[in-house]
């Protein structure tokens, strides 16, 4: 039976195991049964980014229409998932009810929350989801909602595809000095630190040389970076995902995305908050949001975002870097932090 298995969890990547809090069952063995039960639980509260919160009916009305479950979004993820621990940890410590029933985040941003105190251990596999769709913590608490591929975005009015780097090694060239935008969080580069990428030592050595030779300019934002490329503020950026770059290309802006020899994948997951009185509604929404005919379709139409295992257009000779273990997540987090600290000076 599909169940909220409140079993042993990790206090974060590499954390200690916690004692089981005991099982708390969902309403049925199928998403259909769970969604039916969700209609009686009340309004589901979900953390959302500012863009989504500002136009939520465009994103979530299809779910409410189909399942008769109302959604309330909290514009509390302005900094992405990395802001969520600072929100949930004090709520727990002061004995408050959690302000949301569920949230979306990158796994490495919320590792401290992936235990029984903060998130439910949903048995997604029992509900028919393959391992590739689940977060890589020991309990697979999260269901993947988006997969972003990162590479190089460039100004197509200034350069042809052949004139810009094809590998991370080719970025180590003084001719690009001061012309490459890079995000202060280092999150887009984090996966390079995984064993399937450059490895943690190799990634740090690469970044040290990149910083010295290419002298990247700190500039925050996925879409904002590509827009800065279009206006000529920079020539190249490593900040922009394939989806976001393509959306701007479709709008007629002079930006193009190029996959490099390594393709860091940045995944987002839905997690259900521990002890929520609306577990069925939250699981129902998570399932709908990851459905190709549900939220994934909506995100594709509104933001150009997809959730494919292998991003469309990935060259056969490029190596996709996707987290498969907790060690991978930890390596990505360590390297992203290394980049962030180096950029902060």
From TrEMBL:
Residues 39-61 are annotated as: Disordered. Gene3D superfamilies: Periplasmic binding protein-like II. The keyword Signal applies. The keyword Protease does not apply. It holds the Pfam family SBP_bac_8. Keywords: Signal. PANTHER family: SLL0237 PROTEIN (PTHR30006:SF24), THIAMINE-BINDING PERIPLASMIC PROTEIN-RELATED (PTHR30006). This is Extracellular solute-binding protein.
């Amino acid at each position: 039976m599909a169940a909220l298995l409140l079993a042993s969890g990790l206090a974060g990547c590499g954390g200690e195991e916690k004692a089981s809090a005991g099982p708390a069952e969902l309403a049925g063995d199928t998403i259909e049964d769970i969604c039916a039960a969700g209609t009686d639980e009340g309004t589901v509260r979900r953390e959302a980014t500012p863009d989504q919160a500002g136009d939520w009916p465009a994103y979530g009305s299809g779910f409410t229409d189909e399942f008769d479950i109302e959604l309330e979004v909290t514009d509390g993820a302005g900094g992405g998932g990395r802001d969520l621990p600072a929100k949930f940890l004090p709520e727990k410590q002061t004995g408050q009810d959690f302000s949301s029933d569920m949230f979306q985040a990158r796994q490495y941003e919320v590792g401290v929350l992936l235990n029984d105190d903060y998130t439910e251990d949903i048995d997604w596999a029992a509900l028919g989801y393959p391992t590739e769709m689940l977060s890589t913590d020991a309990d697979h608490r999260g269901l993947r909602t988006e997969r972003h591929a990162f590479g190089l975005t460039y100004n197509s009015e200034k350069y042809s595809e052949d004139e810009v780097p094809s590998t991370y090694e080719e970025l180590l060239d003084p001719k690009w000095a001061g012309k490459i935008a890079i995000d202060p969080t280092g999150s887009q580069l984090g996966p390079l630190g995984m064993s399937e990428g450059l490895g943690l030592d190799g990634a740090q050595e690469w970044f040290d040389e990149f910083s010295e030779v290419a002298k990247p300019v700190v500039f925050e934002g996925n879409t904002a970076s590509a827009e800065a490329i279009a206006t000529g503020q920079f020539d190249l950026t490593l900040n922009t995902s394939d989806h976001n770059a393509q959306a701007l290309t479709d709008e007629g802006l002079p930006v193009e995305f190029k996959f490099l020899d390594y393709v860091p994948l940045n995944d987002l997951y839905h997690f259900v908050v521990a002890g929520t009185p609306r577990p069925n509604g939250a699981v129902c929404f998570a399932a709908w949001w990851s459905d190709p005919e549900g939220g994934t379709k909506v995100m594709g139409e509104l933001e150009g975002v997809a959730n494919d295992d292998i991003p469309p257009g990935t060259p056969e000779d490029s190596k996709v870097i996707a987290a498969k273990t907790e060690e991978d997540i930890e390596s990505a987090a360590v390297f992203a932090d290394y980049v962030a600290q180096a950029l902060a000076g």
